[in-house]
Structures are given as C-alpha cells and as structure tokens.
Recover the amino acids of this structure.
C-alpha cells in the first residue's frame, strides 16, 4: 500500500512518492529518503544492526566490528563512468548527469531487451514507484574507487551535495529482488531493514558485513569488503546509493581516472583536468 504523509504546512495528505505537496506545492522531503526514514524500516534496520553487534560479541570480534563501523563513517558515494561521459559532464554546467530512464524516455537510448535491463525497470518501478526517473545510482566506497564494470572514471560525490537526498540500499537492488524472490503481488510490501538514510549508512554496512569481519581483519581490507569488484556487474558486491535529482560536475569532489586509454592524449587529459579544476573538482590519474 502506498503510504501517505501529511503536509507540514497545509496539513492535507498526499502520496509519500510525491516530491511536493500537490495541494500547496511546497517541497517535501526526497521520496527515497522518506522511504528509508520510515519508522518500520528504521526499526527493522536497528534490529539487524543489534543482532550483528551481539553476534560479533559472541564471536569476540566486537572490537573489529566497531573499527569497521568507525571506518565506514568516512565512506563516500562514487559513480563510475566512461571517460567520454566525464568529458561531456566537464564541458559546462548545462551538462547534466542523466538517469537511464530519462535517456530512454527522451528517445536518446533504446531500452535494451536483455533480461538484466527488464529486471532493472521492474526493480526501479517497485523501489521508486512514481519517481524512478529522478534516481541516480552510486556505490558506497572507502577508497574513492567505483565499480569498474561501469567505467574507468570514478566520480566521487561531495557529501554536502548529496547527504540530504541520498539513501543507501543493501546491495545491487536488482540482485536483491531476485535473491528475495519478490513477487509482483508483494511489491508494495517489501522486506524491511535493507535501506537507510545517508547518516545511517554505517548501520546498514555493519548489519550486512560484520559477519565477514574476524578479529584478524585488517583495516586495509575494509574497502574491499564494502565494495568487491565482480567479473560482471551481476557479481559486483556493494552497497547501492540512491540519489534523488540532478547533478553536474559541481556535484563531484574528486575524479579518479584509472588506466586512461592510450589513444587519449596527455593534451586531452590536461584539458579535462583544467575544466574540472575550474569547478573545484580535483582530477587524479591512476595507471
Ligand atoms: Zn501542502
């Protein structure tokens, strides 16, 4: 059942998926954040978190779990894209980072017919009912490197530009839907405790991963635990970040380009670095 919320101003009710009150048009919270902030979701996540902590205590790995928890407070949202896409974004403030659904709706991209894309559409419709065209995806990262399967450039998002409109999800949401065998009839009543608001992303990370942490787990392996690069995008292991709304190059804090293609000249790369620098984004090349 779609939840309704009360407008803080006019006190009328409206669908929690709306970004504005339809009666007085005042802006509301971001619908993905509101969904994660729901009492039932928070309580379920708290239960998972407490269970993970007591399980760690019984295995005498609670100190290690605490160290991991402290590290994840520094995690950032990272989008991985191709160098071509980065170049386009760096061109001007008018270049927006579009979502898959926007590109399809605008006729700029043909919806791909493979199974993965069909599942993506169904998943987004279920998780972001009524607002899927506004959601951008990122992965939670501790070393500022994103998922290699999506491109060689890691776009690290500025915390202050996304914290208010970002929520996090247990894993790749398509994989999660398949794993939990979600049926269409259950789409409005999904299992709870698998998403969190940005400020509580640490709880989700501990609930999900503390069982993998031993007392011998070293701090330098935390980033590989949080984000594990897979052979294909289906095998990637990560916490998915959902960000409502537009972004431009100014939304980035830092950009890391890994192994630039050889045909990309140093002149081109330097020009790119200059353009990004002009909007306050530092570019780093890793070979
Ligand atoms: Zn209102």
């Amino acid at each position: 059942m779609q939840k309704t919320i009360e407008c803080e101003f006019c006190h009328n009710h409206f669908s929690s998926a709306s970004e504005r009150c339809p009666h007085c048009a005042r802006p509301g919270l971001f619908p993905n954040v509101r969904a994660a902030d729901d009492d039932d979701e928070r309580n379920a996540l708290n239960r998972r978190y407490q269970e993970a902590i007591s399980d760690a205590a019984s295995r005498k790995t609670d100190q290690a779990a605490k160290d991991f928890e402290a590290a994840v407070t520094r995690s950032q949202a990272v989008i991985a894209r191709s160098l071509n896409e980065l170049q386009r974004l760096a061109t001007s403030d008018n270049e927006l980072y579009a979502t898959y659904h926007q590109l399809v709706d605008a006729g700029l991209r043909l919806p791909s017919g493979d199974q993965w894309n069909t599942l993506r559409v169904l998943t987004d419709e279920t998780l972001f009912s009524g607002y899927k065209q506004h959601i951008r995806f990122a992965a939670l990262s501790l070393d500022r490197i994103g998922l290699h399967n999506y491109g060689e450039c890691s776009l690290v998002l500025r915390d202050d530009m996304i914290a208010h409109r970002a929520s996090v999800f247990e894993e790749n949401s398509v994989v999660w839907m398949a794993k939990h065998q979600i049926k269409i009839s259950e789409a409005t009543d999904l299992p709870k405790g698998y998403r969190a608001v940005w400020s509580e992303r640490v709880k989700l990370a501990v609930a999900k991963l503390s069982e993998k942490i031993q007392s011998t787990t070293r701090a330098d392996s935390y980033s590989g635990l949080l984000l594990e690069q897979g052979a294909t995008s289906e095998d990637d292991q990560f916490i998915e970040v959902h960000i409502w709304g537009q972004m431009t190059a100014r939304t980035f804090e830092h950009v890391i380009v890994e192994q630039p293609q050889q045909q990309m000249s140093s002149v081109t790369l330097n020009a790119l670095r200059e353009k990004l620098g002009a909007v306050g984004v530092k570019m780093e090349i890793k070979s």
User: Anything to note?
Assistant: The pocket of zinc ion is lined by residues 7, 9-10, 12, 21, 23-24, 26 (CB under 6 Å). The first helix runs from residue 31 to 37.
